[in-house]
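Blackboard transcription, Thursday session:
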Amino acid sequence: MLRLENLSASYRGLKALQGVSLDVAKGEIVAVVGANGAGKSTLLKSIAGHVAIEGDITFDGTSLRRMPAHLITRLGVGLVPEGRRLFPRLSVEDNLRLGAYAKRGTADRFRPLDLVFSLFPRLQERLPQRAETLSGGEQQMLAIGRALMTQPRLLMLDEPSQGIMPRLVDDILAAVQKIRDLGVTVLLVEQRLAEALEIADRAYVLQTGRVVMSGPANVIAADASVRRAYLGI
Amino acid sequence: MTLETILQVAAGGLLMGLIYALVAAGLSLIFGLMDVVNFAHGELMMLAMYAVFVIWDASGLDPMLQLPLVAALLFGTGMVIYRGMIARALSVQFNRGMVQIFVTFGLAIFIRGAAQFVWGGEFRAVNNTLLSGRSWNLGGVYLPLPQLAASVVCLAAFAGLLLISRTEFGKALEATREDRDAVALIGIDRDRIFAMGWGLGAGAVGIAGVMLAGFYYVGPNVGASFALIAYVTVALGGFGSMLGALVAGLLIGEVEAFTAVILEPSLKQIGVFAVYLAVLMFRPRGLFGKL
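(Written on the board underneath:)
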């Protein structure tokens, strides 16, 4: 479904990715793990079209290389970014509904709302509130919900556990699994190694912009050298 | 001053204030959306006034009837300015703030020079309109119909802007204003939203220009004085706030009208700029500013 070939990218003048190749098949949860600064966020930003790249990215056979970011979203690649990037002064409802903005003119474009509310019932209680008044966990739920409203075929999540109470981390990762079970492919970037590998099918370990290891998630989880790579030793 | 004089002056200030408010709203909309101060805002109004004059001169079509046409023309002009100049100015990597100031300032000088070149420096006037010379006597307060029509149209345009802000497009505009880099995540092309914002901003000042042409002289420099007042209005109301533009426009209209009577007409702007200085000193973010 998604294929990165020899991808390199710079972020703020630094080479953040060097020759990364990666595949995601339909229906998988693929985790990308690594220490801070390993290039995980840049990887997702490159796919979403927010960073200039070398190499190639194809999504269902279409090259994303020169495609503007908003068209990549419309093609079916959703990103829940680092820092969530909600519209803070808009209501929860507006944040969600705007997710379907690009689908104006199509029937049932608000249908994913049902899915969002079944995954995150709290959001339904908070509809008229401004997004900025939500707790960190709720904001993360809203960011995922907003991305789901774009009806992605591939959902990319950038550290969904960041800044969230531990109890909610499990809820969110459980929701990610449900989203995959509904047919959405998932590319998950996480710093929390154990949790990410628990729900992932396969994983890539990133270290200073390069893939140093990849394989089935349980194999990666069992490999002691991963922890070393992860800690950057 | 008799009560009648006070009411008369207040009415005059109100009518002019609504025009100031709409001019300021266009400026504030663009600034609020993308942090660009359009120094050519007054020149866009001047272009609308010349468009009215040229069409009237050639066909005799009344300014009121030209309103939809010229407003649409200005809307298109705004979009073209964004696509052709502003988008490029924003894409520079270095000193972006300065670049956008100089781009719009240069555009202002260019439009003014071009108007001078095409139509000459003399003042023109649109005469014998449906409303010219007529007025309405409201309990002793004398309301000239061209001014009254202008203020009613400006108020309606304001209501229009408010309605647009309630639509889904309005929410997309608000989202873009809050986080221009995040809207791509929901498939929104921010360049399209910015271009629409410029269209709306230019359209708003265009509507003000059309109505103003019904009773005000047209000349290459006519926009400059209105733009200056618009900057004061936006600063007083708060950058980016529509409600602020409306309230501040009315305030400025009144301050100007009463200064003209209390001091003398040629000094009417003293009051306006005194207000400006007071705003800068005591409340730099303006009445309703979000900054």
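Lecturer's comment: Residues 180 and 190 of chain B are 7 Å apart (CA to CA).
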